[in-house]
Design brief:
By secondary structure, this protein is mainly β. The longest helix is centred in the middle third of the chain and has 18 residues. It is globular, with a radius of gyration of 19 Å. The N and C termini lie far apart (47 Å).
């Protein structure tokens, strides 16, 4: 059996850390369920020695490929040549977790986090207890959506410093344990921005439109691929102004805020997915925009 290298990373940066996103262009490190771990990779080249050392190593968490970046220009540059950004699913148990790079493994610690509860009243009872025909539609839409969120592409660069997609107060934070009409549902996997109907939604970073449609729960829904397993989604839109295949730049208009799908009022539900794990969008924003 090949030797296994284990590296325990103790660098878990909080939101109050002096190393801000503006200084590093990296998302904040917060190794909790729904957060992001920064795992240093002290290896000089990929597993395949014939590949140039400028090529990021291929790393996996569970079965999902990870976004790996050079540490040049970051506070980590003197510690290791590569940094893996690990999205931690909300279902992850606290304790030691590991990622793999070929025959090597690197560990990190996940700390437990207790998210608050939220109880909402939905007037349209079908949005809480769908009928059989609704369930067929929901199943097909779920398969399509999960496929998009799990996708992988390799653009020349992936931006991990985001701009806010819409103005307005944050009405529902990420991770809330939700109850609809007193019935428990999955945790809130995105961040709600309580913008007025018709408010423009802007691309937070460069990307490609990979899906746009009208979903049972999400309403008018748009998915952007930013590359290397970093995907964002915009739900409950009033109007979608781009089409599948469009390349967008930071600040380009995607559409407008609405109240389509399962909602209690107009707002933008913004989802960020990293290595197919839904993570807190706040970690990608400059502290001044939080």
């Amino acid at each position: 059996m090949p030797p296994i290298t284990r590296l325990l990373i103790g660098t878990l940066l909080s939101v109050s850390s002096q190393m801000s996103l503006a200084e590093t262009t990296l998302p904040d490190a917060l190794a909790v369920p729904g957060g992001i771990a920064h795992v240093l990779l002290p290896i000089k080249s990929t597993v395949d020695s014939t590949v140039a050392s400028t090529t990021p190593p291929t790393a996996y968490f569970e079965t999902h490929r990870l976004l790996v970046q050079s540490t040049q220009g970051t506070p980590y540059q003197h510690q290791a040549p590569w940094l893996a950004l690990v999205g931690i699913p909300l279902s992850t148990e606290a304790g030691t977790q590991q990622i793999s790079v070929g025959s090597q493994s690197f560990t990190f610690e996940v700390t437990a986090k207790q998210y608050r509860e939220q109880r909402l009243v939905i007037k349209d009872k079908r949005k809480v207890n769908p009928n059989p025909l609704d369930m067929e539609r929901i199943g097909a839409e779920k398969t399509k959506m999960l496929g998009a969120l799990a996708s992988w592409s390799e653009p020349k660069a992936t931006t991990t410093l985001f701009q806010r997609p819409a103005p307005g107060p944050y009405s529902s934070p990420f991770g809330l344990r939700r109850f609809f009409n007193e019935q428990p549902r999955k945790p809130h996997s995105g961040l709600d921005i309580a913008a007025a109907k018709g408010t423009p939604i802007l691309a937070p970073a460069p990307g490609v439109v990979m899906d746009a449609g009208d979903y049972f729960f999400n309403g008018r829904n748009l998915i952007l691929d930013h590359g290397r397993g970093l995907i964002t989604m915009y739900s409950h839109m009033e109007r979608i102004d781009v089409k599948v295949g469009d390349q967008v730049r930071t600040g380009d208009r995607l559409g407008t805020v609405g109240s389509s799908g399962r909602v209690t009022g107009p707002h933008l539900h913004w989802t960020v997915s990293l290595n197919n794990a839904r993570v807190d969008p706040m970690l990608f924003l400059d502290p001044q925009q939080r």
